[in-house]
Amino acid sequence: MSIMHSNSFDIRQLEAFAAVMSAGSVTGAARLLGRSQPAVTRLIQDLEGDIGYALLHRSGPRITPTSRGLLFHAEVERHLASLTHIRERANAIGLDEPASLTIAATPSLAAGVLPQAIAAVAPDLLPRHLHVQALAAENVVQAVLARSADLGIASLPLEHPGLEVHWVADAPCVVALAADDPLAGDDVVRLAELAGRRIITLANPYRLRHRVDEALEKAGVTPQRMIDVNASMTALTMVRAGLGVAIVEPATVVGVPLEGIVMRVLDHSIPFVFGAISPAAMPLTPTVAALIEAARAVALAMPGCRLHDSGGVEALADTVYGQTPLPEGLPS
């Protein structure tokens, strides 16, 4: 089978395919693009002819992406986003303005650190177009490595030769409680007091979850009921709904306080370790440099937050990975 019958794509074909994937139908895509349904159908067919394989399964009016179509869609999204950024940067160059900027951060840091950091940067340094992506920590790293993000803020580990680590900090995790919880009146909550309670915490075993499990084991607490989530904000809303108590990093609780939720210190230190990264060997623009410094200042304002030498990331291995083995099947 011949893959790629032409040397370049027609941007209209890519836009049509992306619109179909977004709308879920050719009819919906035609409305999004302001084109006729037959025109969108023809663009998709021409694209499939160019690349040499089907992107969509067709069953009457119903369409679903093929497995190849799903993979190709991820590439199309990145390509179209890059074209948008090129257009924005070209306009900024013509106007002698700061170039558009993309920041990738984990959801907790995107909500708990970035808004205040961006607000602290001098207005004349901020571009007209600022793109903020809330991604899983691993995807933040990949976005910075691929240079689709100019700056990343994520939890450790961040060791990679293609990354420049600008600062690393750690802040102790906290317990989030409903305001009427019996433990809400205590300044410090003992992990042992959470025995028998439903505990809500983050799911990723490669990052914070492993350290939470280690602390619970040291405190002699074996949770019988748990809810794991992929974002701290989800954990906090579950606490507010009365579903349990949450052990989370402090960024979300401090940066996005929720009515009816209180934050308390734990008697066991569970460090949340995070840092700011950019692509290695890439000169920092004044805007990126200012954002790195502003994010550091916001992070250090969190209770108990400490700054570490960014050059000694490997020395934090015990803090990041913990002392006990990872769950069975995961690399140590």
The gross shape turns out to be globular
DSSP, total strands:
14
Summing up helix and strand content along with how strands pair, one would put the structural category as: alpha/beta
Terminal CA distance? 43 Å
Tell me what portion of residues adopts beta-strand conformation. Answer: 15-25%
Secondary-structure element pattern, one letter each: HHHEEHEHHEHEEEEEHEHEHEEHEH
List the helices and strands and how they pair.
Blueprint: H1 11-23, H2 26-33, H3 37-51, E1 56-59, E2 62-65, H4 67-94, E3 101-105, H5 107-112, H6 114-120, E4 130-134, H7 137-145, E5 151-155, E6 163-172, E7 174-178, E8 188-189, E9 199-202, H8 208-218, E10 226-229, H9 232-240, E11 245-248, H10 250-255, E12 261-266, E13 271-279, H11 286-300, E14 306-308, H12 317-321
Parallel strand pairs: 3-4, 3-5, 8-12, 9-10, 9-11
Antiparallel strand pairs: 1-2, 5-13, 6-13, 6-14, 7-11, 7-12
Helix pairs in contact: 1-2, 1-3, 1-4, 2-3, 6-11
